[in-house]
Amino acid sequence: MIRATFQHLPGVGPATEVELWRHGVRDWTDLADAPVTRSLPDAARARIRRELVASERAFAERDVAWFGRRLPDREHWRLFPEFAAETMYLDIETTGLSPYGGIVTVASVYARGENRTFLAGEDLEELPAYLGRFPVLVTFNGSRFDVPFLHAVFPTMGEPPVHIDLRFLLYRIGLSGGLKRIESTLGLGDRSGVEGIDGLEAVRLWQEYRRGSRAALETLVRYNRADTKNLEPLLKLAVDRLSSRLLGAGHPVGAPAGAVGAASGAGA
After folding, report:
1. Cβ atoms < 10 Å from Cβ of 258
2. Portions of the chain given CATH number 3.30.420.10
3. pTM
4. What DSSP character marks residue 40?
5. Residue-wise over 154-181: b if at least 16 C-beta within 10 A, else e?
6. Distance spanning both ends of the chain, measured CA to CA
7. Tens of pLDDT along 193-209?
8. ω before 252 within 30° of 0 (cis)?
9. How distant, in Å, are the alpha carbons of 64, 131, 145, 232 from that of 69?
10. 126-183 pLDDT, tens digit each
11. How many Å apart are CA 192 and CA 175, to the nearest integer?
12. CA–CA separation, 197 vs 147, rounded Å?
């Protein structure tokens, strides 16, 4: 999808992008040689070619932050799946809804097929550095809860260049409600062994662990990890549906395009 995206280019908004698609401009290479581009003044054509060359360079160098700075936040989802290897899924458990009345007990990060869990009183302080290893963050309602909570706990923690909040992305394809409700509606995700557990139960499990129950901690960690790993299939579904809606089911959104760099040297 990212190679069919033009909103990261100066002066291109949603309406212009749709018009480009309607006129058969389906990727960066198309734009470099499209009639709509050739009809522009020389200076404008040169600027577009420079921006497309820069796009190709950033893509080849896997510079996710470059695209994150230029794309509107609500369109950050377009960077997946091309940057799946740079993507992490985060969820935290807390003892309250506010960092001033509760603490982070457990936090899990799922990335590259592996889950890493951080525990209060053991290694939670290592979480910010670990998050800094991945430029694409995926959460469910994390922009309203997880990230602000963590910033209150770790004031110097940096912002990821790209943040995809699935709560709002899924709403765009008609799916609302809590994470578990959406999982159930779609039949996606695996909650084996932690069925029926919710946020309140997670608080109780933490309290049991603090009283000495290792089994309670194991259940809490399993629950927290499910909340992260289950985000991946939901993101894939949302990206597929939004891509098809924007471009049409027949457009190969993941197909590679030719290098713009070669086209940039051609005469207009």
Report:
1. 13
2. 84-237
3. 0.87
4. S
5. beebeebbbbbbbbbbbeeeebeeebbe
6. 27
7. 999 899 999 999 999 99
8. no
9. 9, 18, 23, 23
10. 999 999 999 999 999 999 999 999 999 999 999 899 999 999 999 999 999 999 999 9
11. 23
12. 22
- The token duo for 236 is 């894939």
Tokens representing 129? Answer: 């550095």
Q: Which amino acid is at 211?
A: R
User: Does domain 84-237 correspond to CATH entry 3.90.550.10?
Assistant: no
Q: Please compute, for residue 74, the number of CA atoms within 13 A of its CA located in the half-sphere on the CB side.
A: 8
Strand 104-111 relative to strand 114-119, pairing: antiparallel
From the number of C-beta atoms within 10 Å of its C-beta (0-12, 13-18, 19+), residue 13 rates as exposed
Q: Is 36 helix (H, G, I), strand (E, B) or coil?
A: helix
Radius of gyration of the chain (CA): 21
What residue ranges in the chain does DSSP mark as E strands?
A: 87-94, 104-111, 114-119, 136-139, 162-165
